[in-house]
Amino acid sequence: MDEEAITIRLTHDQAFVLSDWLYQVMFQSDDLQGIVRDRAVWSPIYTISGTLDTTLSEIFMPDYGPRLEAAKERLRASLYGEADESTALSGDAAVAPQAHQVERGTVGNHGDNDSV
User: Fold this and answer.
1) Per residue in 47-85, pLDDT tens?
2) What secondary structure letter does DSSP report for 88?
3) Structure pTM?
4) The dihedral of CA 12, 6, 22, 99: what is its sign?
C-alpha cells in the first residue's frame, strides 16, 4: 500500500471557512457520525482539521466572527459574482467563534506562541 502524502491546496479564505465548518460539525453539533457514517473517513477529517487549526492564526483572534463572515462573503462573491443575501450573519455565528476558542483553550491567549 502506497502511503505517499497528498497535498491539497486551498486559499486562505477556503481554509478558514472549512476550519470553522469542520469545528461546527465535529465539536459543536456532535453530528460527525450522522454526516460521515464510515469511521475510516474520520481519520482524514481529523487530519485536515488539525492541520488547519495549527496553520490559521485567525482562530486565535478576538475578531474571529467578523473575519469569518468576510471570508465567507469573498468566497460567495468569487463563486456567484456577488454576495449571497440569503446567507446573512445569523445570531449563532457570533457565538460560535468564542465557543471554538474555548474548546481549543485559546480564549485569552491571543498572540505570541499560541498552539493547539
Assistant:
1) 999 999 999 999 999 999 999 999 999 999 999 886 555
2) P
3) 0.66
4) negative
Distance from C-alpha of 49 to C-alpha of 32, rounded to nearest angstrom: 13
Q: From CA 60, how far away is CA 43, in angstroms rounded?
A: 24
CA gap 21, 49 in Å, rounded: 10
For residue 35, with 0-12 CB atoms within 10 Å meaning exposed, 13-18 middle and 19 or more buried, which class applies? exposed
End-to-end C-alpha distance for the chain, whole angstroms: 31
Cell numbers given for 112: 505570541
Residues sharing a CB contact under 8 Å with residue 3, sequence separation 6 or more, in sequence order: none
CA distance 70 to 74: 6
Q: Which of 19, 30, 29 is nearest to 54 (CA)?
A: 19
